[in-house]
Amino acid sequence: RVHKTNDDHNIQIQLEDSGPGIPMDDPLRGSLFAQRIVNQRTKGGLGLLFVRLLVEQLGGRIQLLDYTEQHGACFCLYLPHILGEEEVNIVEAVR
Question: Fewer Cβ within 10 Å of end Cβ, the chain: N or C?
Fold first, then answer.
């Protein structure tokens, strides 16, 4: 699911999946957006690192929200409004 909200400075895009989520005591929470060694055992990847780097290049940030049992992993992207000749609708670009 995708939720979008706006304030005067940012567009917030909340992304939620239907998986098991990442419990608060899971040590992985501290390194989700960092570069990790990828191997067959951990099956870790670079996807969230690339997302973080892209969001930061756009002047924003990404955050893993607190775990609840009602949903899977939930991330929030905070992106500044992009103004030029016309305002760009980032949510439509994401879809």
Answer: C
